[in-house]
């Protein structure tokens, strides 16, 4: 129908390529409506945006001779618009069969043949996609530079049922071990957390005890300072009293020293004799020995003292009369 039609449409994301008599033309058309010669010119749209090629049922043998099968491998790729003519000229419209489908089969078998089932199925399975991408891109860059490999997605291969059961059992045991390890880690974490809580509580109690002890020490120190102040005040008071007593004693001593005159001693002597009143019974009074000098002085002062007393009484009566 493409060869019979005159008007044709190139869809978006594609370019139109043309053959005349089986020869590929260099004419490349963009999306839209275009005209061509019917019967003579054939037209084919070629995708130049991202596309995903799915390679299915890829059998391979491992290093140990076990046959496994990759059910599906997806290759995301893109053909550059500027390389459409060169790529189709060298490899035709089905260029992806040569450089993707067939190449994937070859690279997967190369990868599996040098590795054991354990490595392919578990240990290095995560590396398969990246290794396939590098291998495909390396050959495409060398021989078909217009093809760009974006990514490769690999599904888990199918292995014999008996071997799969063994792997599943191993995985179960590994899971149990991992669970035990995780449980042990949880217990250790809980113990560590409990230890940290206990340490934190002990540190808190120690800090509280330290604060209380410091508070008590401060109270004791304050009481000691108050006692010292009280003692100092008491000592100062006692010193003042002692100084006053000493001053009074000194003044009394000085006063007494000033009083120690013959006249004062004579007066005290007479007062002592006068106060010494005694009654004697019997027919003879005891002899009394007096110092003639003291007695003479006393008798000399008596008239003067009597005259002063008379004068003082006279003055008193005059004041009362006034």
From TrEMBL:
Keywords: Endoplasmic reticulum, Glycoprotein, Membrane, Signal-anchor, Transmembrane, Transmembrane helix. Its main location: endoplasmic reticulum. This is Band 7 domain-containing protein. It is found in: Endoplasmic reticulum membrane. It holds the Pfam family Band_7. Residues 5-171 form the Band domain. InterPro entries: Band_7 (IPR001107), Band_7/SPFH_dom_sf (IPR036013), Erlin1/2 (IPR033294). The keyword Manganese does not apply. It is a single-pass type II membrane protein. Gene3D superfamilies: Band 7 domain. Belongs to the band 7/mec-2 family.
């Amino acid at each position: 129908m493409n060869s019979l039609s005159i008007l044709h449409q190139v869809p978006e994301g594609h370019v139109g390529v043309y053959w005349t008599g089986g020869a590929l033309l260099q004419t490349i058309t963009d999306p839209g409506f275009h005209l061509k010669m019917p019967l003579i010119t054939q037209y084919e749209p070629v995708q130049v945006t991202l596309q995903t090629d799915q390679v299915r049922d890829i059998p391979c043998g491992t290093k140990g001779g076990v046959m496994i099968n990759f059910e599906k491998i997806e290759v995301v790729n893109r053909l550059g618009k500027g390389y459409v003519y060169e790529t189709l000229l060298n490899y035709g419209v089905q260029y992806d069969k040569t450089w993707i489908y067939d190449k994937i089969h070859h690279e997967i078998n190369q990868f599996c043949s040098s590795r054991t089932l354990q490595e392919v199925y578990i240990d290095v399975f995560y590396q398969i996609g990246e290794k396939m991408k590098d291998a495909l891109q390396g050959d495409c860059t060398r021989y078909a530079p217009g093809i760009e490999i974006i990514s490769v997605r690999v599904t888990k291969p199918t292995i014999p049922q008996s071997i799969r059961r063994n792997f599943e059992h191993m995985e179960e045991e590994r899971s149990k071990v991992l669970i035990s390890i995780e449980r042990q880690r949880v217990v250790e974490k809980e113990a560590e957390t409990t230890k940290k809580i206990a340490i934190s509580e002990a540190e808190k109690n120690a800090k509280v005890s330290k604060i209380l002890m410091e508070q008590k020490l401060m109270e004791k120190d304050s009481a000691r300072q108050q006692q010292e102040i009280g003692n100092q005040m008491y000592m100062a008071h006692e010193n003042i009293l002692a100084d006053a007593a000493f001053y009074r004693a000194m003044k009394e001593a000085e006063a007494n020293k000033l009083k120690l005159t013959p006249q004062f001693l004579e007066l005290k002597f007479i007062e002592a004799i006068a106060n010494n009143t005694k009654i004697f019974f019997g027919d003879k009074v005891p002899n009394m020995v007096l110092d003639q000098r003291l007695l003479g002085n006393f008798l000399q002062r008596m008239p003067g003292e009597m005259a002063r007393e008379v004068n003082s009484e006279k003055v008193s009566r005059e004041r009362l009369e006034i």
